Amino acid sequence: MLLETIDCEYLNPKFAAAYLLISGREAAFIETNTAHAVPKMLQALKNHELDPEQVRYIIITHVHLDHSAGASALVRSCPRATLVAHPRAAKHLIDPTRLVQSARKVYGDEAFERLYGDIQPIPSDRVKIVEDGEKLPFGSGELSFLHTRGHANHHMAIHVPALSGIFTGDAFGLAYPALQNQGLVILPTTSPTEFDPEEAKRSVDRIIATGAKRAFLTHFGEIRDLETAGTQLRQHIEFSGNLMIRAMESGTQGQALSQFCERELRGYFVSYLESRNIQFTPEKWELLRLDLELNAAGIAAAAERRTKEH
Q: What CATH superfamily classification does 2-225 receive?
C-alpha cells in the first residue's frame, strides 16, 4: 500500500495536508482541504498514473472547513468515488447550507471564497456513513473507522493496518514541521465549538490503543513516536481542561472570557516551548498565533456552555 502526503498550502506551506492512499489500481483520498487544493490532489493521482475514475473513497475526518471544504469539488472530479463521513458530519455535506452561512458570517463573502472556494451539496447516494468500529474493504486490505470525540462530536480517525498507521485529523494534535528541530513537539487543538477535555483524552488513548506505529496528522504529516505524543497531548489537554474550570469560576463572559483564556494559554505554551529550547521567531509566532486564538475561543465556549448546563 502506497501513501503520498499532499501539502495543500492552506494559509502556509506544511500547515494542512491531504493524503492519497493507493492499493493496487485503487485509490482513496483522506481529507480534502479546500476547493483550491483539489487540483493538487488530481495532480497527485496523475503522478501515480491513476485516473479520477480509480478513486474509490474520499474520506473526511470531520466537517471543519480546512478538512472538508474541497469535498464537493473532489466528488465531482472523481465520478465513481464514495464520500465517507461520520454520521453527524454527513448531513452537512449533503446540505452544507448552515455550514456555509455560518462561515460566511464569520469571514465575509470575499474572505470565505478566497479561503475555501465553492462548496456545493453532495448527492446523498454518493455519501457513505460509517459507524464506530465499522470497516470498509480497500484494495488488498481494509480501513477501520473510530469515532474520536473531544475536538468535535462529528470527528473520526481512520486506522489502516496495512500501513501500521492511523489518520488522526485533529484528534491527535498538531505537529508543525517548523517546531520539530528539538524533538517532537505536538499541541492539541481545542478550537470551537465542541471541546471536551475528557473525551479528547479518551480519543488520544484510543488512537494509541490501535497499536498503530505511525500517525498521519492533517496538521501536519507523519509522526512515529505515538507514546511520547500521547504524553504531551494529555498534559496539554489537562491544562486546557483546568483552564476551562477556572474560566467557569471567573464570572467573566463573552470577549473578556476569550481574552482571559488566550492570555493564560499563551503564557503556558510560551513557557512550554521555551523549556524545549524553542525560541520564538516572528515566523514561529505567526504559525502558532491562529491556533492559540482558536484554542482559547474553544475553551471559553466550553466554559460558557457548561456554565449554562449547570
A: Ribonuclease Z/Hydroxyacylglutathione hydrolase-like (3.60.15.10)
Beta bridge partners of 1: none
DSSP character at residue 15: S
Q: What grid cell was written down for 217?
A: 496528522
Choose among 144, 192, 132, 201: nearest CA to 172. Answer: 201
CB atoms within 10 A of CB 131: 10
Calpha distance 157→167 (Å, rounded): 6
What is the tens place of the pLDDT at every residue in 257-286?
999 999 999 999 989 988 888 877 777 777
Instruction: Name the percent of the chain lying above pLDDT 70.
Output: 100
Nearest to 141 by CA among 48, 22, 32: 22
Helices (H), the chain: 38-47, 65-68, 71-77, 87-94, 97-107, 109-116, 197-209, 226-249, 254-275, 282-309
**R_g of the chain computed on alpha carbons:** 19
Per-residue pLDDT for 181 more than 90?
no
In angstroms, rounded to a whole number, what is the distance separating the alpha carbons of residues 205 and 308? 29
Residues 6+ apart with CB under 8 A from 155: 61, 62, 86, 147, 148, 149, 169, 170, 171, 203
| Closest to 109 measured CA to CA, from 101, 98, 120, 99 | 101
- Tell me the per-residue pLDDT of 95-133, one tens digit each, with 9 for 90 and over: 999 999 999 999 999 999 999 999 999 999 999 999 999
219/14 Cα distance (integer angstroms): 8
Q: Report the pLDDT averaged over residues 82-95.
A: 98
Q: Which three cell numbers stand for residue 41?
A: 490532489
256, 294 contact by CB (below 8 A): no
Q: Are 212 and 159 in contact (CB under 8 A)?
A: yes
The β-bridge relationship of strands 141-147 and 156-160 is antiparallel
Cell 452561512: give the residue: 101
